[in-house]
Specification:
165 residues; 5 helices; mainly alpha; single chain; Ferritin
Amino acid sequence: MDNLRQLFEYELKDIYFAEHALIKALDQMANESTSPQVEQAFATHKQQTEGHVKRLDMVFNEMGEKAASEECPGIEGLIVEKKSFAKEKPSKDILDLYNLGAGAKAERYEISAYESLIGMADKLGMKNSVPLLRDNLQEEEQALSIVTNLSKTMMKSGKMVGAAR
């Protein structure tokens, strides 16, 4: 790899893999939720994430490439971490809170990836792709805000059994 286009394509394949993996994870977290607000947040973001994949397909198209994924160890690590936590047999409220934190971690990863991709796409003159990537970035930032606010609300509500005061 020795040029910006190759790096862009590599990073694009990485986030493409991540988005596909997160569709499954978001579905699981929505199904695990006991809070209707948390369930709705994950379900809504799953739909957005499906849209992210479609936008990424369009970015690949502008490059003249077939959409493809490259293993994303960063997202895989977050998914492994979540599975490991589930072995602790957390209460439903604690699982909701954990999942909101896990969602925030994934959003921050994606935000960083999209910021980088936007800069590269702009430098490469990919006029159609920049707004597509910006749309994905804005939805990731919105999702981060939602999970962060839900987490704060849950902790303030006093629902957390055994919470330190």
